[in-house]
Amino acid sequence: MLEIESLSVAYIEKEVLNSVTMSIASGEILAVVGPNGVGKSTLIRAISGVIPPKQGSIRANGVNTSHLSPLQRARLMAIVPQARELPPAYTVHQTVLMGRTPYLNWLGQAGKSDHAAVWRSLEHTDLSHLAERRIGELSGGEQQRVLLARALAQETSILLLDEPTTHLDLQHQSNLLNLVRKLSQEKTLSVLMVLHDLNLAGLYADRVALMSDGRIFSLGVPAEVITAQNLSAVYHVPVNVIPHPDYGTPLVLPDGRIIPAHPSESVQSS
Which of 46, 65, 174, 254 is least enclosed by beta carbons within 10 angstroms? Predict the structure, then answer.
């Protein structure tokens, strides 16, 4: 379980997060959404210990993370970062093995349990057949799965994902988020993921946190948060929100005032 209480973060004089409070239960996915620059990625960095909070607390499975070393923190939570900076000459297996760093012996050697954890992660992410392939030979979607596999190899109960669907096509977005959903249920992971796509957030998250100016504007189940009123207030554009035809989850559409690419064709078709 991940608990965040009154968390504030400042860069020099500017406050980026202001009294953020939320919790994520075991087996739950919480999606954090909002416009650019409202503090979504900063929240991930603060939770993972990259930047120190100005005030507030972060508790991972009941443990206050402010007292933890990076090694201890890495045994509690894993992160799938926004940017892909993977070593192109490394194999998939070598890269995923990096996730076992918190558990290596004092000589930095991997044991049987470490390699077993790597193979389990490769199987979960459908990468076993690519274990000896070099990172530089993989597609963007495959590299994204490698990042997820590396995080899973840490065998933590908390998983943080910073815009995991960036640069992925529709198929890879769906495959990745379905996998995260499956793993959150099977392994009872507490998952916090930052997403830009509101429709994906509504479809895959148990709850959604809508951020504005470093604060939580609305927090609840997708149907409560992803509303035309909330989105118009935060994004400053009018939108329509309708139920998904198959799942009933909120589906966000432009309000119809967008200038069509071919106005004459639009008129004729109507």
Answer: 254
Cα–Cα separations (whole angstroms), residue 10 to 19, 23, 39, 46: 11, 21, 10, 10
Rounded-to-integer distance, Cα 125 and Cα 180, Å: 9
Classify the C-alpha dihedral 152-156-159-162 as positive or negative.
negative
Strands (DSSP E) contained in the chain are 2-11, 14-24, 29-33, 55-60, 63-64, 77-80, 158-162, 190-194, 207-212, 215-220, 239-243, 250-254
Task: Give the C-alpha separation, 85 to 160, whole Å.
Answer: 17
Q: In the prediction, which pLDDT does 257 show? A: 63
8 A C-beta contact, residue 6 and residue 200: no
Q: What are the residue ranges of CATH 3.40.50.300 in the chain? A: 2-76+156-269
Please tell me the distance from the alpha carbon of residue 60 to that of residue 67, in angstroms, as a whole number: 11
Q: Specify the 3-state DSSP secondary structure of 200.
A: helix
For the segment 246-260, what is each residue's pLDDT rounded down to a tens digit? Answer: 999 999 998 756 566
φ and ψ of 174, to 5 deg:
-65, -45
The answer to whether the CB of 175 falls within 8 A of the CB of 124 is no
Token digits for 270? 């109507």
pLDDT bin (cut points 50, 70, 90) of residue 263 is low
Q: Which residue has the tokens 């998952």?
A: 191
> In this prediction, what percent of the chain has a pLDDT beyond 70?
94
Q: Which fold has domain 2-76+156-269?
A: Rossmann fold (3.40.50)
**Strand partners for 215:** 212
What is the C-alpha to C-alpha distance for residues 169 and 159, in angstroms, rounded to an integer?
Answer: 22
User: How long is the chain?
Assistant: 270
